[in-house]
Amino acid sequence: MAYLPAASRYTQMQYRRCGKSGLKLPAISLGLWHNFGHVDVLENSRKILHLAFDNGITHFDLANNYGPPPGSAEENFGHILKDDFKSYRDELIISTKAGYYMWEGPYGEWGSKKYLVSSLDQSLKRMGLEYVDIFYHHRPDPDTPLEETMMALDLIVRQGKALYAGISNYGAEEAAKAIKILRELGTPCLIHQPKYSMFVRWVEEGLLDVLEEEGVGCIPFSPLAQGLLTNKYLKGIPADSRAAKPTGFLKEEEVSEEKVSKIKKLNELAQQRNQTLAQMALAWILKDQRITSVLIGVSRTEQLTDCLHSLDNLAFSSEELNAIENILK
Ligand SMILES: NC(=O)c1ccc[n+]([C@@H]2O[C@H](COP(=O)([O-])OP(=O)(O)OC[C@H]3O[C@@H](n4cnc5c(N)ncnc54)[C@H](OP(=O)(O)O)[C@@H]3O)[C@@H](O)[C@H]2O)c1
After folding, report:
1. pLDDT (tens digit per residue) in 109-158
2. Ligand 1 pocket check for 67: Cβ under 6 Å
3. Distances (CA, A) of 153 to 23, 115, 135, 156
4. What is the pTM of this model?
5. Where are the domains of the chain?
6. Relative to the CA of 223, which ligand 1 atom is closest?
């Protein structure tokens, strides 16, 4: 049966303006890094996308290398788009990126104009799209002049292959430089995508201030620390978890005793707030108005439903915030 999105899809989700741009993003966005590759079950990926859109998640985040194998998440997403979302393209914000290794030779990774332009052309083909909404440079390139990388983003936007430009994994200082170059070129930087969670907090030491000053949005990735900040690893490593899967990026050794002891304490605090730990971890990031959206991943629909309920309570008392700081110390 053809997919028909829920008529109620815009009733619950909160939308936040992305920096000082005209674009609003859902407070929760869905990433396709894991669980959408050829190694995964396509019908499960499809169900996740349906549930997301039914609940007002309008933003789906990809990259050239997502899979495995690399490129397969874009291919699968392209199939599902064609089957189910064709009539809804104008309700979707689709992003992709280039920066990591994709193909052999000197033009298959990093930040040259040659690589970025070729990679986006490949991504558009895989997804069956004429344009993406956001195109990111995925990671800073120590060798290519920043001007060249930013000129490539500017060119891509002017060509209409992307509507907006973004950067990811840039430190505060290099982000400030990139934002300035893009502004001078006439293509403002829309958004920055950094890693940020209760366990990874470098963005608090300068980057968030830069983004606020410059009017650039912020969409943290891995806000659940790849699943650590959920109730998943309270009693060991489940067989179907990212830490146990050979294709998962979370390593077993990251589920350390020290981490699990913190996770248990955070879980108790979440329960006192009548939230699951995943909900509290997302709310903890979204409490900061400089954050546009949290970019989550899910391996099944039940997890997405759980995460969506984080929006029911984004407020923290100062006692709760102090308790979290004490646990994280
Ligand atoms: N720019 C970059 O360099 C970069 C890097 C990484 C990611 N990203 C983006 O960020 C997105 C999200 O990253 P991520 O997948 O690492 O995010 P995450 O939300 O921190 O972790 C997702 C994992 O957490 C578990 N999970 C999620 N909700 C849960 C719940 N309610 N209860 C229990 N477990 C739950 C699932 O693990 P199981 O699979 O074990 O069930 C899920 O696969 C990616 O898809 C990608 O779009 C960008």
Report:
1. 999 999 999 999 999 999 999 999 999 999 999 999 999 999 999 999 99
2. no
3. 18, 11, 8, 5
4. 0.98
5. 15-328
6. 20
